[in-house]
Structure formats: C-alpha cells, structure tokens
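Example record for the data management plan.
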Amino acid sequence: MTRVVLDANVLVSAVLVAAGNPARIVAAWRDGDVELLASPAILDEVARVLHDPRLQRRHGLDDHQIDLFAERVRSAALLMPGKVEVKVVPEDPTDDRYLACALEGGADYVVTGDEHLLQLSPWRGIVIVAPAAFVATELPGDGLDER
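Corresponding structural encoding:
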C-alpha cells in the first residue's frame, strides 16, 4: 500500500474544501486506499492552524471539533515517534518535519504545495508532489481539480 505524508496545509485544505484534491486524498486514506504517516510535530501544526480564529470563522469548527479531528487523525494514521531529525530545508526548517516523518516511516510520497519541498523531489527515494499530481498518479478518477 502507498505510504504518504501530508503537509499540514493539505490536511487543513481537506477540512476547508470538501471537493478538492486534498479532500480526495484524505478520503482515500479513510477508505484504506493509502496509508497516512504522521508525527506529533505535524499533528500539532494541523491543530494550531485549524485553531487560528480567522480559519475557524471560515471552516466553522469549534475547538472541540478541531481537537476531535486531530485525535481521529492521530489514532488512525501511522504515528511516527518523531525521533528522526533531518536538516534539509534551510529556507524553512519547519518543513524538515515532513521529510523526517517520511524517512522514519518509509513513505513513498510527501504531498505538499510547499515550493521548498517540491523542488527537492525525489529526496532519498521519496517522491514529493502537489495534491493534484498525487491524485492523478495514485488515485482513481480524473484529478482535474488543480489544488
């Protein structure tokens, strides 16, 4: 089964836009078509972003619902311990958390919209792609949504 690390912004986009490619990837994970790898640092970032008051007004979830979403991801994803450290993205060291999780979990893909990460692909055998490219390559359907 394909192992994938999703950038926090991809997970957040799945919450915000139910019909986009990020949502299709999350649905594929929920359906058992892909295996999601995550780390405590990634999940903390997802919760932090979703708790932003400006985003909360947009997605309409209260603090309890956000915590439930983060806990569902935490309990259903393959949670990496976060012991691997890499220093690959000097322009944005927080991006290293995705590469570390992917390396630690033997991921096939990192799915992100972050240019710092996308320009590294492939990195140590891990393909780094935007959500639309992942959908077009790995999921059934047309993948026409360019998000």
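Summary line stored alongside the record: Residues 142-147 have pLDDT under 50 and may be disordered.
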